[in-house]
Write a structure and sequence with these properties.
Elements: E1 2-6, H1 10-14, E2 20-25, H2 30-37, E3 44-48, H3 58-67, E4 73-76, H4 86-94, E5 100-101, H5 104-112, H6 117-120, H7 131-134, E6 165-171, H8 178-189, E7 195-200, E8 213-216, H9 221-226, E9 233-237, E10 249-254, H10 258-267, H11 271-274, E11 279-283, H12 289-299, E12 303-307, H13 318-326
Helix pairs in contact: 2-3
Amino acid sequence: MNVMVYNKYKELLLGLNIDVMKSLEGVHNVDEIIDTFTNFYYDKMILDITAIRDYQNVDNLQKLAMNINMENVILLLDDNPETDTKAFLSKLISLGIYNFTKNVDGINYLLVHPHTYRDVVNIHNLEDLDEKISEDKPSAVVANTSSSKSDDISESAPVNNGKLRIIGFKNVTQHAGATSLIYMIKKALENKRNVVALEINKVDFLYFNDKEMLSSTTQEILKDIMHRNSYDVILLDLNDYEDLDICNEVYYLIEPSTIMINKMMRKNKNILQDLKDKNVILNKCMLNSNDIATFEFETKLKVLFSIPSVDDRQAIIDPIRNFISKINL
């Protein structure tokens, strides 16, 4: 089921042939929208941008993006001259907002075919961004997508110098925590290893304000790895990237709550077979040792390691150090 937030384009949205279980009308502060829907389960939110008070201020959109999963939001844009520009769309993309449109056909398409970063990278022009978005380090937002002929790298080119260890992390259940886990691992390693983190087809690393946590794309990742061939460790947030041969090893993250497991199984009924003999990590895990044994018995999966919910602001996080030791890092 879906939810709607509408204002100027109420009639347009009410004309959609979709099931809606909750709607919010009028102009609202970002905090009101966040409070209304943060703990409310829905499939998609159709959000009329004019329902956001002062939506021209990118700070408001940034706050929304940091508190609501924008993968599940379709943003209906306005024809306001201030926002009807490629520069404004580029700002949306920098905030991880990829599903936006100006008409009903676009909404219907995105309901079935949601966009990822690679679908909108062609309009993501960092040079046009307001300094408010890119004042710290624009290069950390996303890898430069322009390249000269001399920079080209064949898809089959080797990217590992023999010393470099490329470690991939992939969420199996939704929001299993790969992004934050990579941040904590990098923080624990950086005084002992020359380490960098790359995410593919997303820009979540932007919010860590770390110049060694960078964003890349499917088209650029091989080049970005090659350019960092002198590092000891590259931590990859794989997201939807499927060419796992670029990694020395891949760890598959599962949040073992009932709702996440059931959603995982409904999305892919063969997922347990696919994960057989893979490096399975239980992340944000509240299970005790007996519960984990039961999980292994019921799923026929071997759990390599279990990481509980932790505070990523702490300087020393014992479960992260233990995991690093487990994988000989």
